[in-house]
Amino acid sequence: MGSNKAFMYARAMIKGKVIIVSEYLNKDELDEMMLGWAPNLEQALEEAFKKKIPNKILVLPNAVNIIPTTLKGE
Prior knowledge:
The protein is mainly alpha-helical and 74 residues long. It is 38% helix and 5% strand. The two termini are 16 Å apart.
């Protein structure tokens, strides 16, 4: 992961909870990355609205550019 991606990832983690909806990553993998998981956008938004700050929700389609990857076996 390049330093720019690492910076964007860290900034997103500091500013709030990141919930990922992806068909390529499962909950266990996202837990390793300290990211939230939801099976679909509706449930991700429902979880975000529970925080009672709806004007602070950001949806990033194709946000794969800021998500790190884990290396298996390390």
